[in-house]
Amino acid sequence: MKIDKIINNNIVSALEPDGKEIIVMGRGIGFGMKPGKEIPESAVEKVFRLDSQNNVDKFKELLVNLPLEHIQVSTEIINYAKSVLNRSLNQNIYITLTDHINFAIHRFKQKMKFSNPLLNEIKTFYKEEYLIGEYAIALIERRIGVSLPVDEAGFIAFHIVNAEFNTAMRDTIDITNLIQNTVGIVKEYFSMEPDEMSLNYQRFVTHLRFLAQRIVTKELLNSGNVEFNHLISEMYPEEYRCSLKIKDYIMETYHHDVTEEETAYLAVHIKRMRL
């Protein structure tokens, strides 16, 4: 690949064979180089491929204006998240998380406090991502000497969830509220407090995460297994009635019709959680 523009000594932009612009990072990769020169493969540490030229331009602006150590620590956190979750993340997280971390550090230095109203929900519904957030604030303290509050672990977790589900922050907040309210319906219906550490509870929450994502992003599921739906309603009548309450709540709040098959699966997960 050939250099298109030199951003600084450690970051350049380059053009791929199809003409798309990418960002390339490597220690000293831009030093003494000129546009048009070939980039040695040995100098490349990280390549950023974003989903639009607009986002490439945004990222370049961040790279020019942000301290290199903020960019590096953000990249390290994202790489750690990918390895822990063992799944890909939307590349735009390199923009959103880097910008957030830079602003969080700025707020800390200005002694500005910013609480996270959904911290408890994040800890409960996004356990893996929250642990990554805790790792992130510990890494920031080691690398930059700034001790961010636990609220920031929650905010960082939210950015990771956004990148997992390929959703906007507003959608992730809606998904979180939907999960919280659905769990609340089950608790109230059965007058129970489920064990949040149990495997069946975590399976229920995971199921709700994907259901909530489909609802918020307006994706529809086909429903054709009539025998399965009837069987579940007969085997678990109370759990099925509870799932119908959830179905009504989702229709009233999000104007989304949960299919009979999805309603039956909710009943199965509720039954498991009650065991």
Automatic annotation (TrEMBL):
Domain spans labelled PRD: 65-170, 171-275
Any one Gene Ontology BP term: regulation of DNA-templated transcription
Cited Pfam families: CAT_RBD, PRD
Secretion signal span: none
InterPro entries: BglG_antiterminators (IPR050661), CAT_RNA-bd_dom (IPR004341), CAT_RNA-bd_dom_sf (IPR036650), PRD (IPR011608), PRD_sf (IPR036634)
Listed GO MF terms: RNA binding
Keywords: Repeat
Protein name per Swiss-Prot or TrEMBL: Transcription antiterminator BglG
